[in-house]
Amino acid sequence: MPDKDRIYLFHIFRKDGTSLFLNPFGSPDKFVSGLERNEVEGRYGMEPRVEALTMFRNELYRQIEVGVKNWLSDARFVPKFLISAAVFVAVYFFMSFVARDPLPVIDEVAIGLAAAVVVFLLLGRRDMNSKAATKKRLDLRVIVDRITFRESAFVKQVEEALHRNETGSMEEVVKQIVEPARQELGPEVREEAAQFIRALESRFDFKKLQREERLLKRVMGRSPGELNKSFARLVESKKYDFPLYAVYKSFKKTVANQK
Fold first, then answer.
1. Residues 139 and 172 in one domain
2. Both ends of the chain: CA-CA distance in Å?
3. Tens digit of pLDDT for each residue in 18-65?
4. What is the distance between the alpha carbons of residues 244 and 71, in angstroms, rounded to a whole number?
5. 177 and 259 belong to one structural domain
6. How far apart are alpha carbons 184 and 194 in whole angstroms?
7. Domain ranges, residue 178
């Protein structure tokens, strides 16, 4: 059996002491398949608090629940649909020939659809309590419980860059976005860095910042080192996480140049 690929989860300590957890899976469905097919490890720079790890583990449990539910929905859709369709037909003919009413067809269709929907939902609830679902859920929880976090020199480097951006001037942050500087990364952490970039992209929709980035480039080009008031409000607002985006741009440039 071939060795499993190694997937990293990241804990990032922000300057204000809050924790940011990143994983490259994106959706609960990908998270479930990723746990089953890969070896998952955690990485941190500054050691995370126990309560932060507990909250993160609980979030992974919630993703397992959603992922298992989606897995069952896909696997059991056809049988549930056929059973529900049979219930609709049975109720329709029963109402048509046994319980006659002054509004033929309309009532029969409505009651038949309602019965089919109820049966479909009840079958889905039963599937979530089935042995197969329980076993899959427990197996995935065991995998999550076995995930260990280890200190990483790369994550420390990420945290240092992020903290500089969070405490630096607005002009410096914008300059890091417009003209990202390359980071020094050894060959032993290149895969870790590449997965960090993918984890950021799966967590944040950085495409929405591309328009703002183009505008910032034009402003910086007209008056280097200075920003007008509108862009000052934009960068200082909480709507966009520019310090983290600047870190992303810098490390993405480094990873891209090392391929």
1. no
2. 28
3. 888 888 787 777 888 878 888 889 899 888 888 888 888 888 888 888
4. 34
5. yes
6. 14
7. 159-259
